[in-house]
Amino acid sequence: MPFGDLTVSEGTLVKWLKAVGDAVKEGDVVAEIETDKAVVEIEAPASGTLSAIDQPVGAVVPMVGRIGGIRK
């Protein structure tokens, strides 16, 4: 879960915009994370199918934490 601001250490997952089984393209917004500073859109790092949602809405996730998976 990459953030552009290195002072942010974690965020709360507020919304999934894709569901397991949905096709995604690299750069598609798949989720939204709220930090203490803003709501951040999380983009798919690769194209494929969203194969897993590892964190539910409301979960607090560290900046380098995994929130889901994409199968190519």
From TrEMBL:
This is Lipoyl-binding domain-containing protein. Pfam families: Biotin_lipoyl. The keyword Glycoprotein does not apply. Keywords: Lipoyl. GO terms for cellular component: pyruvate dehydrogenase complex. PROSITE patterns: BIOTINYL_LIPOYL, LIPOYL. It comes from the Bacteria. InterPro entries: 2-oxoA_DH_lipoyl-BS, Biotin_lipoyl, E2/Pdx1, Single_hybrid_motif. Residues 1-71 form the Lipoyl-binding domain. GO terms for biological process: pyruvate decarboxylation to acetyl-CoA. The lineage of its organism: Bacteria, Pseudomonadati, Pseudomonadota, Alphaproteobacteria, Hyphomicrobiales. Its cofactor is (R)-lipoate. The keyword Nucleus does not apply. SUPFAM superfamilies: Single hybrid motif (SSF51230).
